[in-house]
Design goal:
Elements: E1 4-6, H1 19-23, E2 34-40, E3 43-48, H2 49-65, E4 73-77, H3 83-93, E5 97-100, H4 107-117, E6 121-124, E7 136-138, H5 139-145, E8 161-168, E9 174-180, H6 183-186, H7 188-195, E10 202-205, H8 212-224, E11 228-232, H9 241-247, E12 252-255, H10 257-266, E13 277-280, H11 287-296, E14 301-308, E15 312-316, E16 330-331, E17 336-341, E18 344-345, E19 351-357, E20 366-367, H12 371-376, E21 378-379, E22 382-391, E23 397-402, E24 407-409, E25 412-414, H13 416-422, E26 429-440, E27 443-452, H14 458-468, E28 477-480, H15 494-503
Parallel strand pairs: 2-11, 4-5, 4-6, 6-7, 10-11, 10-12, 12-13, 13-14, 27-28
Antiparallel strand pairs: 1-17, 2-3, 8-9, 9-20, 14-15, 15-16, 17-18, 17-19, 19-22, 21-22, 22-23, 24-25, 26-27
């Protein structure tokens, strides 16, 4: 039997359609219900559905009043505050195209995005790194827009461009991924395929507002069913999350595996009476971490999901369809997924590349300004993820690793080529290679191996990296070598670098 999973097509996206209108479809019916609570140990900022919808559509009206037209691109350089989702949805509501970006990016990294996108304007918090010049909309101006008379939703073809997000590509150049309005409709497959989500849930997401994992899983998905989103305020430490989960009666918790790991390092038991289960994504969840969380919470499970910027999450475990040990879970109902090699679909039990059918409503429109790079990700009707897996006869998929050298840093995928390019002119360094290494069970860090006449102080190297790279892309380990290992073709061997680190710890 071929390793193809297909349980039928998902319901087509209605038309006309608007992503923001879908997210806020329950806002009038649940006007006074708490849509969002921003949590600190000593303070809670609450937003009702009525207030949230007013702020979103008021912001949309304000952006149109400045002369922006549907289709215009707005680069978002906002911090970890409620400004972020309001501006994001406000732009989409009126047909503008926001580009959410991490506040951790450096000015140099943002400048490259600006050159590629030529945005009509930048939505900017003055405290967030951003090149000078161009048209700016400040956070204070955005806040003033919230009380304006609400704009009407820009309804239209669900296939039209809604937003752009950046991801590191295997070439080392961050790719601008274009998504259609229908992307939010496709996320409905996750509601039971991963979350077990319903209106009475209170979902606490550990990430920052300006992370796309938080935007989707932590905010838009719960809002679309009328559930309450709980987000830790900026500066809240990870060791405070168990108390927030308890005090605010969170029923669901979403985080990267590293967050679960750090919580368990400080809490052997967790008292969470309202809690049902956790969700994890961003990196592979280990069985030991899953078991430790279950023990600490008195039997509460973590359900894992697999996805990527180009298609969000499409393989997952859930309360209704739990995964067997070691498995990611199954493709969500409505997805068509195959394990393939260069000849086509492999057989059950054989390793191949995880691929998703081009008809999936959550799949990207393509890479902005990169038609060749877009075409290279497709073979016939299948999108190639770059990850390998093995499918069992019941559809369960075991993860078998990357088919390339992409690294994972705290849930972010990072290209070693991008890091190497940023560090290429390090003073005194004659050659370098970057990879991620396992420093202890379930923990990987980015390491830079370099050659130089003499070892260089780590602080000097780290300070150089800080000027060029977002924090999550910066090497945490620096290793001086006499020579970098190469394969028989003379190319850098990252596997040999990892082996060198393991053997010399």
């Amino acid at each position: 039997m071929q390793a193809v999973f297909d349980e039928g097509a998902f319901a087509p996206c209605p038309t006309p359609f608007n992503l923001a209108a879908h997210v806020l479809a329950e806002a009038d019916r649940l006007a006074d219900k708490c849509a969002l609570a921003v949590l600190s140990p000593d303070h809670v900022e609450r937003w009702s559905f009525k207030a949230l919808k007013q702020a979103v559509l008021g912001t949309g009206a304000g952006l149109l009043a400045r002369g922006y037209q549907p289709g215009d691109i707005l680069l978002m350089r906002l911090g970890n505050t409620v400004d972020f989702p309001i501006a994001y949805l406000g732009a989409i509501a009126v047909g503008l195209v926001p580009v959410p970006t991490s506040a951790m990016l450096t000015e140099a990294e943002v400048a490259k995005m600006g050159t590629q996108l030529s945005p009509r304007a930048v939505l900017r918090d003055p405290a967030v790194a951003c090149p000078e010049g161009g048209e700016i909309v400040t956070t204070s101006e955005l806040a003033e827009m919230r009380t304006l008379a609400p704009a009407a939703y820009d309804m239209g073809d669900p296939e039209r461009l809604a937003y752009i997000i950046y991801t590191s590509g295997t070439s080392g150049t961050p790719r601008a991924v274009m998504h259609a309005h229908r992307a939010i409709w496709a996320r409905r497959m996750m509601h039971q395929g991963w979350y077990g989500l319903h209106q009475e849930d209170r979902l606490l997401h550990a990430g920052a507002f300006n992370w796309t994992f938080t935007l989707g899983t932590g905010l838009m998905d719960p809002w679309s069913v009328g559930a309450t989103a709980l987000i830790p305020a900026e500066g809240v430490a990870l060791d405070q999350l168990p108390k927030l989960l308890h005090d605010h009666e969170a029923t669901l918790f979403a985080a990267a595996p590293g967050v679960y790991r750090k919580i368990l390092q400080q809490h052997s038991t967790l008292d969470l009476p309202a809690f049902r289960h956790g969700m994890a994504a961003g990196e592979k969840l280990s069985e030991s971490l899953r078991a430790s969380w279950c023990k600490a919470t008195g039997g509460k499970k973590i359900y894992e999901a697999y996805g990527m910027s180009e298609c969000s999450t499409f393989i997952s475990a859930s309360p209704l369809r739990p995964a067997i040990e070691g498995s990611l879970g199954r493709p969500q109902r409505g997805r068509r997924v195959a394990i393939r090699n260069e000849h086509g679909a492999v057989k059950h039990g054989e390793e191949g590349e995880i691929c998703i059918h081009c008809t999936d409503p959550g799949l990207m429109l393509g890479y902005f300004g990169a038609a060749e790079a877009t075409a290279a990700r497709f073979t016939g009707d299948w999108f190639q993820t770059g990850d390998h897996g093995v499918m069992q006869p019941d559809g369960q998929i075991n993860y078998a690793g990357r088919g390339d050298d992409m690294m994972n840093a705290g849930g972010y995928r990072v290209s070693p080529l991008e890091v190497e390019a940023a560090l290429a002119d390090l003073p005194g360094v004659t050659a370098l290679g970057v990879t991620d290494v396992e420093v202890k069970a379930d923990t990987r860090l980015i390491a830079c191996f370099y050659t130089a006449a003499e070892p260089i102080e780590n602080d000097v190297l780290s300070n150089f990296a800080k000027e060029r790279l977002a924090q999550y892309k910066q090497p945490r380990i620096w290793v001086h070598l006499e020579a970098l290992p190469t394969n028989p073709n003379g190319k850098l061997s990252r596997k040999a670098l990892q082996a060198l680190y393991r053997n010399n710890r």
